[in-house]
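Lab notebook, bench 4. Still working through the backlog of constructs that have no structural model yet. Next entry is a single chain of 678 residues. Request: give me the structure tokens for it.
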Amino acid sequence: MNKFLISTLTVAVAMTSCTNQNAKTEDAPFEYSVDKFADVEVLRYRVPGFEDLTLKQKELIYYLSEAALVGRDILWDQNGKYNLAIRKTLEGIYTNYSGDKTSDDYKGFEEYLKEVWFSNGIHHHYSMDKFIPKFSKEFFAEQVKAVPAEQLPLAEGQTVEGLIDELTPVIFDPAVMAKRVNQAAGVDLIQTSANNYYDGVTQKEVENFYAKMKVPGDTTPISYGLNSKLVKKDGKIYEDVYKVGGLYSPAIEKIVYWLEKAAGVAETEGMKAYIDKLIEYYKTGDLKLFDEYSIMWVEETSSNIDFVNGFIESYGDPLGLKASWEAMVNFRNPEASHRTSVISENAQWFEDNSPVDPKFRKAEVKGVSAKVITTAILAGDCYPSTPIGINLPNANWIRAAHGSKSVTLENITDAYNKAAAGNGFNEEFAYSQTEIDLMNKYLELADNLHTDLHECLGHASGQLMPGVHDDALKEHGSTLEEARADLFALYYLADPKLIELGIVKDPDTYKAEYYKYVMNGLMTQLTRIEPGKDIEEAHMRNRHLICQWAYEQGKADNVIEYVTRDGKTYLKINDYEKLRALFGKLLGEIQRIKSEGDYAAGRDLVEKYAVKFDPELHKEVLERYAKLNIAPYKGFVNPVYTLVTDDAGNVTDVTVDYSEGYIDQMLRYSRDYATLIK
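Model written out:
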């Protein structure tokens, strides 16, 4: 599977303090920080170059943005069956509240609402743990009763008291729907996960259901289960497919409406053709059509505007079968894309020279395209928490036969960097001024190159052996796929080829990324883990696996060293060249595991290196981090696009505004883009 690269910048570099939600960008310097609560800081991003687009291009972005925003409710429902009802109830309380806003109950309620908005549901977007409310059941019941009944999500015949009784245990009981995605070993991962991809089925029943669908020897396998809910009713198991006339039809119908508008102003015939194919897929739910769309999409590289809209990534399913809905609209950054173009043009060289057994390499790398893009809108599983790079499509056979598209979201990384100036993070955790200077000098380029290589080549590299299916590694597939792509990027960051290609000038550039990556993987990402918890999120597991394995394997040569100074723990890299060699060795093994579908070896690697960590070090890191007052998680509000028309209804312009605050945006989205709950 090809997955997001979630930014490690959000740990290695953090953000400035909260500013006025309604800051006007036209009258003052751009205010990146929008809101701050719990463990989150919300930012805004610029869309440079939008004003320079043609009217037709602006119109296209507007329609695609609307097609993105109207799908919002789908993800909320996928994340949990009560999420939409809870959201509407909480918003009803918020907009009708007339009591004391300084009370502990109200402040706790407001923070909870902001957390739920940010995570598109009642579970933390990264840890997957259910939020613990800092307000009482009594406060909740009292406030629900104060909301006009017509503003509550009452089912037919349901009373307000019935709604309270239904939602109270879901919100307040820690044992009810405790974890959205459970990856713990030794339990039924389906029945212990609170996501809404399954109803009434066990893990074994899911695995058997989809195993029967697979056709032995099929070289173009369908991604079975990607766009459906698996339901057991009256002893019968069936798929409830996401499509027009099926599950989520009210939302999908609106997505189709705006896609049809977009098709009318498509930049190229190829773009119009793949939009039409995507519409056909949405109308039928036929995954064969989705594959056809994916091929058409990946092969159309001439248009400046591009987008993702659909059921794409499977992180939300512990078995990696079901896909969450997401959308993103973007346009090419031609100047910055030179870097990724050079990398993609040399994809075959990188594949041929990788430290991987030749039989697991692609003999011919096809259709790898990469670009740096300017993000115009984020939606679904890309919002508010946002990737910094994407490689699609996820189907291995399509990547092998037709290629893949990779993008680096440079205006998103730029917003992270601009908002992070002077937060004191590196000064607190880096071993010495040498490492600080190294990162200050090279990290921006090195981090972008890591993303480029991860997305463009890492995910696109290697091949599966005949008969090995995409989901062979089951619950560990996402972690190992991200590790494979990260290792590919880390290995080649230090290669002289980058200097030869003119992408890097100083051979020490890679060391900035190596140091940041190791510091993050072994120490600073632990700021995201609650005391007593294990590492469970796939990207975090990936980083810890790589760094812990390298630390253990390099002990004899003291490649990575823990150093204690003035009562604080630091990491020191003593031999960067040997560290690169270790990255290459692990890349070879993980590619073998993926290529052969060696589930047992993959499981053992994850369980040994990716999950556990030193609790004393964790305690120390948390204490040091707390003193910095930095939120470990970041996300974004979107700009607001407005279609301008003349008296005859002709489009004359599309304007963009950055001033909308977090609360205002969330309430507006619930008002204007609610499709599955009214």
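Notes after review: Residues 1-27 have pLDDT under 50 and may be disordered. The chain has two domains: 9-71+246-636, 81-180. Flag for follow-up if needed.
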